[in-house]
Amino acid sequence: MQDIRTRLIEATFQEVFSNGFKGASQANILKKADTKKGSMYHYFPSKKDMVICMIEEKIGKRIEKKWEDLLSCEDNIIDNFIFILIDPNSWDLKDGCPLGNLLQESLDYDEDFAKTLNTILENWKKQFSNILNKAIENKELNPDIEIEKVATFLIASIEGALLIAKKSEDIKDFENTINQLVFYINSLRK
Questions:
Q1: Are 43 and 5 within 8 A, CB to CB?
Q2: The pTM is what?
Q3: What's the distance, CA 143 to chain centroid?
Q4: Where do the domains of the chain lie, and which CATH numbers do they carry?
C-alpha cells in the first residue's frame, strides 16, 4: 500500500484534474487518499501547498518521463518523436492535458501557481530543445532551425491539439492538428 503522502499527491492529482484547482474539494482529496485532515497537515501546510507539490511531482515528472527516452535514442529521434505524437493512446483526449488545464485556470489566479507552471513549461521547452539538438547532431534535422522557437511551437501545438479534442470531444480534431504538426516537423528534416 502507498504511504499517506503518496496517496495524498495521487488523490490531489485526480481531484484537480477532474475539477480544476478552484473546484477541487479538500474533503474529496482526503476521502480518495483514505486519510484525515491532520495527516494532510503533517505533510503539507495547506491545500495550495499540496497542489503545488502535486504539480511538480506528478505533472512535471509526467511530461519529463513522456519524452525522456528520446534523449537516449541513438538514431531515428524524429521518427520516435512523431510516433509518440500520433499515438492517440499516449494522450488523454477526453480530459485534455493536466498542465494545459491548470494553465487555463490558474496562471493569473496565484503567483505561486504561475511560477510553478512556468517552471514546468520552461523545463519542457529545454527538454524539447535538447531533443532537437540531438536530432541535429544525428543529422536528422536541418542545422539552421531556431531550436527554442521550434520547441515552443511544438508545445503550443500539442497543447492546442489536446484542448481542441477535449472541447470538441472528437478525436479527429486531435488527429488533424497532429498530422499538420507532423507535416511541419518533416519539413525540418535534413
A1: yes
A2: 0.91
A3: 27
A4: 52-187 (1.10.357.10)
